[in-house]
């Protein structure tokens, strides 16, 4: 059925990456078409839900770690439709006065964001419409908004986003432009599906998503490392999401990248 005139098309008739990811995380913000895509991914690669949860767990670990290091501003790009605990809940629990700005360009996400991603008395949380494919305009929008002060260190989260960008969209250039717009002492945190840890798994997942109209681009470690080039790596450096831990904590030895082949890493600008 066509969208009613004057009402924005929310794409409810086709699978959407944010809703599929929400489904894999056990959320409730998805439709039958998204569940079909998620089920196809699970049939092709049964560990797909574990991989999604590994990325979500890594986000909590690194958010707590950066809060402990004194970071009080978080910029979450391509927020999608997350499940609790949300990023702002995690960082506000660690330090009062923490600010979180969620950014997305998708009408589906923006339709839910204001209701889901609200701050509390211990901090501030807001949403902003901007497109990561135009990083200069995104930085201008953030600067004009009054939630994040780009003259102070910021933690930039690009989780589950870079592997949705094609090579010809220059994801490495996008990240470099964004980092150049941040104050020294800022952090980049990323996750990215691996193409080389379990190549057969990656190929099967790409095929399953393509059949449902979702573009997906896993990359090798050699292709992911340049995102963190020039940064002082934090914690264990670039590793898999299941194994990323900061400080003296170490992941159990039985957790391997084969179980959830997604890279994760964090670095600090100089």
Structural notes for this entry:
With 270 residues, this protein is an alpha/beta fold. It contains 9 helices and 8 strands. The protein has helices at 17-24, 32-44, 48-68, 87-94, 107-116, 135-144, 171-180, 199-210, 221-224; strands at 73-77, 98-104, 123-129, 155-158, 187-193, 232-233, 239-240, 262-268. Strands 1, 2, 3, 4, 5, 6, 7 and 8 form an 8-stranded mixed β-sheet that branches. Helix 4 (87-94) links the parallel strand 1 and strand 2. Helix 1 (17-24) crosses helix 2, helix 2 runs antiparallel to helix 8 (199-210) and helix 3 packs parallel to helix 4 (87-94).
Give descriptors for this structure:
270 residues; alpha/beta; 8 strands; disordered N terminus
Question: Which percent range fits the helix content?
Answer: 25-40%
Helix segment tally:
9
Mean pLDDT: 90
Q: Roughly how many Å is the radius of gyration? A: 18 Å
Strand element count? 8
What layout of secondary structure does this protein have?
Elements: H1 17-24, H2 32-44, H3 48-68, E1 73-77, H4 87-94, E2 98-104, H5 107-116, E3 123-129, H6 135-144, E4 155-158, H7 171-180, E5 187-193, H8 199-210, H9 221-224, E6 232-233, E7 239-240, E8 262-268
Parallel strand pairs: 1-2, 1-4, 2-3, 4-5
Antiparallel strand pairs: 5-8, 6-8, 7-8
Helix pairs in contact: 1-2, 2-8, 3-4, 6-7
């Amino acid at each position: 059925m066509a969208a009613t005139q004057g009402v924005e098309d929310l794409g409810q008739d086709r699978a959407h990456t944010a809703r599929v990811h929400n489904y894999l995380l056990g959320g409730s913000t998805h439709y039958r078409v998204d569940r079909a895509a998620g089920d196809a991914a699970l049939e092709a690669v049964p560990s797909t839900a574990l991989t999604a949860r590994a990325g979500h767990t890594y986000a909590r670990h690194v958010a707590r770690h950066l809060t402990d290091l004194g970071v009080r501003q978080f910029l979450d790009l391509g927020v999608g439709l997350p499940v609790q605990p949300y990023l702002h809940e995690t960082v506000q629990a660690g330090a009062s006065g923490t600010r979180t700005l969620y950014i997305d360009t998708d009408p589906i996400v923006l339709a839910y964001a204001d209701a889901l991603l609200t701050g509390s008395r211990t901090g501030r949380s807001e949403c902003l419409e901007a497109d990561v494919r135009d990083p200069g305009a995104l930085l201008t929008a953030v600067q004009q908004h009054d939630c994040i002060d780009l003259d102070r260190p910021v933690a930039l989260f690009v989780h589950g986003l870079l592997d949705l960008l094609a090579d010809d969209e220059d994801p490495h250039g996008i990240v470099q432009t964004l980092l150049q717009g941040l104050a020294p002492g800022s952090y980049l945190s990323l996750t990215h599906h691996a193409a080389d840890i379990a190549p057969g798994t990656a190929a099967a997942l790409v095929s399953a998503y393509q059949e449902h109209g979702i573009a997906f681009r896993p990359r090798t470690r050699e292709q992911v490392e340049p995102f963190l080039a020039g940064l002082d790596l934090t914690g264990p450096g670039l590793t898999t999401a299941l194994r990323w831990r900061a400080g003296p904590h170490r992941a159990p030895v039985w957790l391997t990248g084969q179980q959830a082949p997604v890279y994760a890493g964090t670095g600090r600008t100089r």
